[in-house]
Design brief:
12 helices; alpha/beta; TIM Barrel; single chain; 8 strands
């Protein structure tokens, strides 16, 4: 079977009854001591990798996707990047899809290299990658072409969850539409003729903007949405139904800090206490989303 990210995600989300992605954003200051002070671990990159393995082992049966944010690994130098690569391989070995939250975007020649680095089968790669389109359409075409060759996924930034997203994405152009609408229209052009229920070319749409979630879901009918912002960033779980289609499909809901660092535990908590808290937060988010979808948007 040819690799197809959107089909695999839909299949796994149904099998696990879960639309949740766990963001692997390892913050050394918040990693529990039973990992950070473990004997034989003397490098930050080792601590990060062991924390990620701990989290992956806990959530693998309950979610279809994990999403490592590369900044947390790159800041640790080459060893940190190595821990990212080992995290990707470990997650894949547990049957999980992996979205690299890289937000890459550059001129076409450099974008080609980025696309090959993340999506080419020659270099291992991941299941999907986030892409920043704000250098122009030529900066995302190499990712689209690579996606079509490999069947792997893209999530193009359209309306992001941060408060500063309005500074560029909401600017009205000379044609009367907003910058984010320009990006939306590029995605529509690339996906409208897809024979698949969902194309492998998706969109990042933040949960902190409920009105825009509804508007974009109506227009981007062929795109999976990667939805950050629930939890620590303040997105309202009661509004999450807006990113799903009428059958309760079409979105990946990401949670990072709320699952990795539950409020009920501290760095001094035992392994058993921490594991129980992580599982509780993961299952709680799954349950909330499924309840909303089952009740047609009512919490």
């Amino acid at each position: 079977m040819t690799y197809n990210f959107s089909q695999l995600y839909e299949q796994m989300s149904i099998e696990k009854n879960s639309k949740v992605s766990v963001g692997l954003d390892p913050n050394l200051e918040r990693i529990p001591k039973f990992i950070s002070e473990k004997s034989k671990i003397d490098l930050p990159s080792d601590i990060v990798l062991n924390f990620n393995k701990f989290i992956i082992d806990l959530v693998a049966d309950f979610v279809p996707v994990v999403k490592p944010q590369l900044a947390y690994y790159e800041k640790l130098g080459w060893r940190g990047y190595q821990s990212y690569e080992k995290t990707v391989e470990y997650a894949k070995s547990k049957g999980l899809l992996v979205i690299a939250d890289a937000k890459r975007g550059d001129i076409d020649s450099t974008a080609t290299a980025y696309a090959e680095a993340f999506l080419s089968d020659r270099y291992g790669g991941v299941s999907a990658v986030t892409v920043n389109p704000y250098l122009g359409k030529d900066s995302i075409i190499p990712f689209i072409e690579q996606s079509r060759q490999t069947g792997k996924g893209l999530f193009i930034l359209v309306k992001t969850s941060n408060s500063g997203s309005q500074d560029i994405q909401d600017i009205v152009t000379s044609r009367g539409n907003r910058v984010r609408d320009v990006v939306r229209d590029w995605i529509i052009e690339e996906t409208e003729n897809s024979n698949e229920k969902y194309s492998n070319i998706g969109a990042v749409v933040g949960a902190t903007h409920p009105t825009e979630m509804s508007q974009l879901r109506m227009s981007l009918k062929k795109s999976l949405f990667l939805v950050p912002g629930i939890g620590a960033q303040g997105g309202d779980i009661k509004e999450i139904h807006r990113v799903f289609d009428e059958n309760g499909h079409g979105a990946v809901i990401n949670s990072s800090r709320s699952i990795l660092y539950p409020d009920s535990v501290t760095v001094d908590s035992t392994k058993e206490e921490y594991a129980e808290a992580v599982l509780c937060e993961t299952i709680k988010l799954n349950t909330q989303i499924n309840k909303i979808l089952l009740n047609n948007g009512q919490y």
